[in-house]
Amino acid sequence: MVEKDLDTGTDQLLAVKYGGVGIVTLNRPDARNALSSELSPALRSVIVQMGIDQEVGALIITGAGNAFCAGGDVKSMAINKGPKVSVEERIAKLVDGQRKLTGALVEIRKPVIAALPGAAVGAGLSIALACDIRIGAASAFVTTGYVRVGLSGDYGISSLLTRVVGNARARELMFTAERLDSARCLELGIFSRVVPDEELQKSAFELATQLAKGPRRALALMKDNLDEALEVDFKKSLDGEAPRLIECMQSSDHEEAVSAFVEKRQPNFGEG
Predict the structure, then answer these.
(1) Does residue 268 sit within a domain?
(2) Global pTM?
(3) Is the alpha carbon torsion for 43, 52, 15, 182 positive or negative?
(4) Each residue's pLDDT tens digit, 205-222
């Protein structure tokens, strides 16, 4: 397997492809990988690129150093207020930015894993929650954080957190900005797995590799099923599964899976 580095346009974001897995690393360790005017647009661009890249079967998003992402750069907010623009323009810019970051992450039809070496705060927590699976290092923690800086929440935190922990718990976590350690995150379902700090990247890559080798169309349609299940009642969800299953049954991946089962070997799925 050959590792391919991708040009993100900034040192604040690293991206590589290896063995069918795309690995995206937020790289501002001195700022706990807080989002910035360089990092955010680069991340939006790479998410789109990884989403359509046929060589990538699964995606990992992680952070350099001992943090995942501290959300917005509060120090930068205090120093740089930016040019005078209307409220309408500011709203439109934020709406667009949100849709192209966490919105785009949710829309990716490939398994996306967040590997959290440390803190995920505010918008950083939103990014992690927009991923399908979250693996936390033992020393990792999360907090909504918004109330501490007098903000109401962005990047989908309200919906994403509610989907994971439920309405009542989401309200508590938003109102209090309680810091949740890795054990509590695992208990609440925010983390899917917790591993020793030194095993985080290895564990995330092993899982991503397993998923990347899976039946990609079936995985994409699974995501469609699961997303739809959040929005419709049981009967509509039930009916929605049927055409997707029939589509899978007509695929070469299904044929290969059946052959492999009969022949008692591991399947070798294609990339479509």
Answers:
(1) no
(2) 0.94
(3) positive
(4) 999 999 999 999 999 999
